[in-house]
């Protein structure tokens, strides 16, 4: 459970960093690029991936997991960019809802791809989780962003985050080889982002680089502990998928309320209660039902 708690903590710290960086002349695509530069470096230094005498090009060509590498290498930065665009077009409330409700996809994958058996406890837990998510992202109409709406970008946020969760579960199933997979995914994501910025002829800023390096450290540990949580709870991916989403949004709601003076309504509070109940059914009551 410690790995799951740490994954939630680092994920929330990512949101806090982005919140603090807002309005400080930060160029988001540059932040994303430098994020993957440091995340890849930390993976290489701390996890020490080995390629059995092959260079990375040979490894990519011969590895059976090559589709996962390329999928994550493209998806990870693309989802960041899509998320940023969705916020500008549809507002934070709707974009946050689309991201969190992407939980639907990995939950389906847990039962249909990863072979998890449905029990009364995890069915109730999943139902409570979706009720919690809907309550936690709820905003009264007058609090929602009035800016332009783009349902295409919201759909892409929903799909992108759901697919990333499923692919990270696939990496977790690789056991000790996940260090190789993570390193290559970060490397490809970094190459993709820096290429995008060069093509766009971006004006590089020191603030964006510093923010990106800080984000990279938090993002690395978030993903590392998330994968380790999947490895520890290998027979119960639903617990990890659900607890991660519920935990992040509960912690984010509380930090937003008390640290940044954001408003939390009664329905949001109800969401926290349902979130706690979901985790209780998925983890503590699983053995009794």
The total of helices stands at 12
Number of strand segments: 0
Average pLDDT, rounded to a whole number, is 80
Q: pLDDT below 50 for ≥5 consecutive residues: which ranges?
A: none
Task: Describe the structure in your own words.
With 289 residues, the chain is mainly alpha-helical. Helices cover 76% and strands 0% of the residues. It contains twelve helices and no strands. It has helices at residues 2-21, 28-47, 56-62, 66-90, 92-100, 104-112, 120-136, 151-172, 178-199, 206-232, 237-258, 266-284. Helix 6 packs parallel to helix 8 (151-172).
List keywords for this structure.
0% strand, 289 residues, 12 helices, mainly alpha, globular
List the helices and strands and how they pair.
Layout: H1 2-21, H2 28-47, H3 56-62, H4 66-90, H5 92-100, H6 104-112, H7 120-136, H8 151-172, H9 178-199, H10 206-232, H11 237-258, H12 266-284
Sum this structure up briefly.
The chain has 289 residues and is an all-alpha fold.
